[in-house]
Amino acid sequence: MKILVCIKQVPGTTAVEVDEKTGTLKREGVESKMNLFDLYAIEQALILKKQYGGTVDVITMGPDQARAVLMEALYMGADRGILISDRALAGADVLATSYTLAQGIQWSGEYDLILCGKQTTDGDTAQVGPETAEFLGMEHVSNVLKVLKVEEGSLEVLENQENEVRRLQLPLPCLLTMEKDANTPRLPSYKRKLEMGDRGVEVISLKDFKDKDTSHYGANGSPTRVERIFPPEKNTARQMYEGEPKDLAASLGQLLKERKFI
């Protein structure tokens, strides 16, 4: 079974400044980490590899520093890492990002199964996985809680809906986005780190894609634009009350009425 996992490097802190002109995060000098939901996708891929055999590749899009999350995945047990890195890809929205990933996946080869985290902790759109599947012409299911079994040409999963959990069967190849309750991700292996060093990552760019039209990538290929983005204002104002419980309750009730909460 040949499996690919799409991962992303995200800021490791919420204290990230925003460029108000471009509407993008200022990532320079900010500590980064693997996107939380991607860890569950990697773990699911490694579980399936153990059960059914095969290989696990990981792919990401970003600057050279994104190599770190690929190496983390390799130390966890993945076999191959692919980094898509090119200045022409900067400023991509979810559509351009999905198209870029689809091009990179097509370059990498054919896969039986592609796994993604449900969403990223910086964008929170939960759109890149399904959009990538659409560009690849693949069946896909989001919010997967568990892969129940894989049979010849198909697999069964539990999909988490808002009010129910559904059991679904879909044909291979397909793409799944994994929920955080799907499993417990393993830690990277120190032994594999010593054995591999910094080997195992291939770097590709726009010139390697079948579609080399720069108007389809990055800011040029993004149909959506952020008109304005800014960090929320912090309101530290507070009002203190002292007295007996009965008096405090009356004061709080009066305040809620004045502000029309009740």
Descriptive report:
The chain has 262 residues and is an alpha/beta fold. The chain has one domain: 3-Layer(aba) Sandwich (Rossmann fold). Helix content is 27%, strand content 26%. The protein has 6 helices and 13 strands. It has helices at residues 36-52, 67-76, 94-108, 128-136, 190-196, 245-258; strands spanning 2-6, 9-11, 18-19, 24-25, 32-34, 55-61, 80-84, 113-117, 139-151, 154-160, 165-171, 174-178, 201-204. The strands form 3 sheets. A 9-stranded mixed sheet has the order 11-10-9-12-8-1-6-7-13, with helices on both faces. A two-stranded antiparallel sheet has the order 2-5. The chain has a two-stranded antiparallel sheet with strand order 3-4. Strand 6, helix 2 and strand 7 form a beta-alpha-beta unit. The longest helix has 17 residues, at 36-52. The mean pLDDT is 91.
Mean of all residue-level pLDDT scores? 91
The CATH class name reads Alpha Beta
Distance between the termini: 59 Å
Secondary structure category: alpha/beta
Order of helices and strands: EEEEEHEHEHEHEEEEHEH
What number of structural domains do the residues give?
A: 1
